[in-house]
Please model this.
Amino acid sequence: MTAIPRAIETVRELVPDLDGRIGQFEVETFEMDDELIEAFCEELDRLAGDMQAGVDESDDDKIRMSAHSIKGMGGTMGLPEISVLAQEIEMTMSAGKMDQCKRLCSALIGWSRGFVASIK
Model:
């Protein structure tokens, strides 16, 4: 059984009200087998690539769709802090704060790549 690394402190630096928002994404924990974690990593890697392409191409829809999918996956996998970070990306996009959105995207993409590398 592979342990899933958490990103609480990293996300707390980016989303100051994390503690107040994380509860909406917390789910009852369960044991995850390596096959499920591998599938999560594959999808996370793909979505991080899509998000990077969205940032590079200034494609708001691609960023939004990637963030939305990661938001759901984070909660499912017991990583509610990642769900909050993805939600923050959606909110900053809606507010037209693209500089902040790009910074958050960069952090989420970097975390995703590091997470996938740590599991392999």
